[in-house]
């Protein structure tokens, strides 16, 4: 039976507890990921101040004049860093949809520093380890983003150990596949809507995410996140600023040979006339394995539903498909 609400999982017992407690939490994660591919986590240990500070900077930045924001826009459309204006991409196109550009702006960034070894600095590495592009205002934006990124890195490391336990694998199964991960973050800004959207246009069209886990910090405003149930209905997802919504991405679905679902979700438009209260910000950490990790179904020989795919190639392909 499909959940009527998104399951809530308290991570605290697993983060401080015994293997038995980790197993119990892992089973809860397994049930949620099998059924709907979404869960809300609490007891995650991330200090609220880290979240508030980044949200505050994001709000200041996105409320600057467009011309100033555009100074943080990369010249090339292919560079996944910096500011992107309204309608730059259409997430539905990554899943064979054809909606017009999404009604959101975003700020795209990755880690600040990396070692000077070939994995990072080679031609292949430079496709994924790209310098961030911070605007002049607000001051402290880069530092707040780096602190939040580091907290998410810890959290996803812990979650992937629990994921391995849930899947009956060694607890460290994913460790050497994520120890040089290429995770990018997007700070999404959905402005209040003065004009009616075009037909089929949304804040974010129906799509699945690409990586392992997405850790989302949102806010409940008119025009929010919805996920599709197995019955085909759209279920509203609460996204309070003091919890995180976690969802499975395509690569983890492939890795688990469809045991876990990378589920279709979207961000709907606010009702007409909602006014400024409909402005919404979300912070999305798209946890993605090392670019050279080969994602192969965990399945008995002959039963794999997908051919192996390289982590970095898969993400690049999806970025290309979603660009309008
Ligand atoms: O803003 C949200 O609530 C979800 C955004 C999302 O699904 C995405 O950026 O992939
Ligand atoms: Fe998404």
Automatic annotation (TrEMBL):
Residues 181-289 form the Fe2OG dioxygenase domain. Pathway: Alkene biosynthesis; ethylene biosynthesis via 2-oxoglutarate. The keyword Metal-binding applies. Its cofactor is Fe(2+). GO terms for molecular function: 2-oxoglutarate oxygenase/decarboxylase (ethylene-forming) activity; metal ion binding. It catalyses: L-arginine + 2-oxoglutarate + O2 = guanidine + L-glutamate 5-semialdehyde + succinate + CO2; 2-oxoglutarate + O2 + 2 H(+) = ethene + 3 CO2 + H2O. Keywords: Ethylene biosynthesis, Iron, Metal-binding, Oxidoreductase. GO terms for biological process: ethylene biosynthetic process. It comes from the Bacteria. The keyword Iron applies. Gene3D superfamilies: B-lactam Antibiotic, Isopenicillin N Synthase, Chain (2.60.120.330). Coiled coil: none annotated. It holds the Pfam family DIOX_N. InterPro entries: DIOX_N, IPNS-like_FE2OG_OXY, IPNS-like_sf, Iron_ascorbate_oxido_reductase, Oxoglu/Fe-dep_dioxygenase_dom. Its EC number is 1.13.12.19, 1.14.20.7. It is an enzyme of class 1 (oxidoreductase). Belongs to the iron/ascorbate-dependent oxidoreductase family. This is 2-oxoglutarate-dependent ethylene/succinate-forming enzyme.
């Amino acid at each position: 039976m499909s959940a009527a609400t998104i399951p809530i999982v308290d991570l605290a017992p697993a983060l401080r507890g015994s293997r038995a407690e980790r197993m119990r939490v892992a089973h809860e994660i397994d049930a949620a990921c099998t059924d709907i591919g979404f869960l809300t986590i609490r007891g995650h240990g991330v200090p609220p101040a880290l979240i508030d500070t980044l949200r505050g900077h994001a709000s200041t930045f996105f409320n600057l004049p467009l011309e100033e924001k555009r100074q943080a826009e990369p010249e090339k459309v292919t560079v996944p860093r910096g500011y992107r204006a309204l309608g730059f991409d259409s997430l539905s196109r990554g899943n064979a949809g054809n909606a017009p550009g999404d009604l959101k702006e975003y700020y795209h960034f990755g880690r600040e520093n990396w070692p000077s070894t070939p994995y990072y600095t080679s031609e292949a590495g430079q496709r994924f380890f790209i310098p961030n592009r911070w605007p002049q205002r607000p001051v402290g934006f880069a530092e707040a983003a780096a602190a939040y990124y580091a907290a998410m890195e810890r959290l996803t490391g812990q979650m992937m150990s629990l994921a391995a336990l849930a899947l009956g694998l060694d607890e460290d199964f994913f460790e050497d596949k994520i120890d040089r991960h290429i995770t990018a973050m997007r700070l999404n800004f959905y402005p209040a809507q003065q004009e009616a959207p075009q037909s089929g246009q949304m804040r974010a069209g129906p799509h699945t995410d690409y990586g392992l886990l997405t850790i989302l910090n949102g806010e409940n405003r008119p025009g929010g996140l919805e996920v599709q149930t197995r019955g085909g209905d759209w279920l509203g997802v609460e996204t309070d600023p003091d919890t995180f919504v976690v969802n499975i991405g395509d690569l983890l679905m492939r890795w688990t040979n469809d045991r876990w679902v990378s589920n279709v979700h979207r961000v709907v438009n606010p009702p007409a006339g909602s006014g400024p209260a409909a402005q919404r910000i979300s912070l999305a950490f798209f946890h993605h394995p090392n670019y050279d990790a080969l994602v192969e179904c965990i399945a008995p020989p002959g039963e794999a539903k997908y051919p192996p795919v390289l982590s970095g190639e898969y993400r690049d392909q999806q970025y290309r498909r979603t660009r309008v």
